[in-house]
């Protein structure tokens, strides 16, 4: 058994560094941008045509929060090639596995994190807005200088949890042939006929990665809350 672990461990770590971690980082970064835009649009009080835009973003959040991530991966990778659009994509929308995975993970992360950011912004007392306006700040400047920094502190724990969940969810990328850690463990298990050892080993690697991320989350919480703690 130890010989199997000794042989498989470098391959699993290599797959994690090449695919699992980059996919999680890129998808989360893009997802945060999507989440911030979505949250700001949804809390906007503008009327007219903007209400339709808000409705579109609300539908987007509902769609990705109401359907399984695995199904979303299958739709993007296996389903879109059958979506033929005359003049734009007459042969369907064909994406390579890595692109399809990043797009799906980003949109899924954006939907969930947008609710976190929206709730964090709404949790800031209205008095903060009024104080900013009394200093002559515009709404955009108040949001950037006063509201978002406070919302960041509130949203760090749930956003960090979302990232940790995303790292684990990247194992689903094996279903669309991305050779990340879980896919490599399946390939090795098919060769050495030791699925229990291989799956326990890859589970341990995910656990180690998530433990490190949990420690980083605690550090970020201390950093973003240092002034609040000092104030008490």
UniProtKB/TrEMBL annotation:
Q: Give all residue intervals belonging to the ABC transmembrane type-1 domain.
A: 17-214
- The answer, when asked if Transport is one of the entry's keywords, is yes
Record-linked InterPro entries: AA_ABC_transptr_permease_3TM, ArtM/GltK/GlnP/TcyL/YhdX-like, MetI-like, MetI-like_sf
Spell out the molecular function terms from Gene Ontology. L-cystine transmembrane transporter activity
Q: Which Gene3D superfamilies match?
A: MetI-like
UniProt xrefs under Pfam families: BPD_transp_1 (PF00528)
Q: Tell me where in or outside the cell this protein is found.
A: Cell membrane
The superkingdom of the source organism is Bacteria
Q: Which spans are transmembrane here? A: 20-43, 55-80, 196-216
Q: Does the keyword Transport apply?
A: yes
Question: Primary place of residence?
Answer: membrane
What family, per the record? Belongs to the binding-protein-dependent transport system permease family.
Q: Under which name does UniProt file this protein?
A: Amino acid ABC transporter, permease
